[in-house]
Amino acid sequence: MDWLHFLNLQYWYCVVYSFFGGNCTYFDELRATGIDVPFDGVSAAEQIGFFQRVGEGMTAMFSSIWEPVSNVMAFTWSMYSAIAWSISAFLFFAILSAFLGLIYIRTRELYTYGTVPLEETGNDPYRARWDELLEMAKSTNPKLWRDSILEADRMLGKILGDLGYKGINTAEKMRNLPEDAFVTVPAAWEAHRVRNFVSQETSDFILTQREAFRVLKLYEQVFEEFNIV
């Protein structure tokens, strides 16, 4: 097992020691057994030269290996940089175009709709009153059903008067109403006819909640045509 002497820590200690010109007794024992001793009979200057040549050789070897690797890495980095800059430039112009397009759209919207006044619904007396009539029709009191229809008919008469139709009440204004005055004239006539039945105390007409709600919806069709509700 003498060939395993290089695994001995003492062996490597003597190698380093002999490199600096020392003489190790362990090497004497190796020489006695016929084993070659490193740097045997070699001066310190020659040993230093040997290691210098070895270092230079290793440096040249690594340089020859590193040069093609560095060339490949440099080419890869240049390609990556070119692609990255191209994508960044494209995204930059895309974002800039979207931003300018948004400004253009907002400017057109402001130019087209900026002067249109907002619709005011909070002060509309018809809207508020109509909501009250619908709530009356949803109640369980039959008298409120009747009152909601009578009030809706008065609203219809007021609106017809605002449209220029003459008459002291809704009935006269309806009689002066041409058949083609507006689209919902049939609905207005049907609702007014039911109102006449409801207004007569001696009438045998039975008003149900379902019927009251249906009649109010007829009035509502007329009011919606004129944007009253």
Keywords:
0% strand; single chain; rod-shaped; mainly alpha; 229 residues
How is this structure best summarized?
This protein is 70% helix and 0% strand.
Question: In percent, how much strand structure appears in the residues?
Answer: under 5%
Low-confidence stretches: none
How much is the average pLDDT?
A: 79
- Percent of residues in helices comes to over 70%
Order of helices and strands: HHHHHHHH
How many distinct beta strands?
Answer: 0
CA gyration radius, whole angstroms: 54 Å
Tell me about the biggest sheet?
A: none
Number of helices: 8
What would you say this structure looks like, in words?
With 229 residues, the chain is mainly alpha-helical. Among the domains are: 40 residues, no CATH class; 101 residues, no CATH class. It contains eight helices and no strands.
Topology:
Blueprint: H1 9-19, H2 25-32, H3 44-113, H4 125-137, H5 142-162, H6 170-175, H7 185-199, H8 209-225
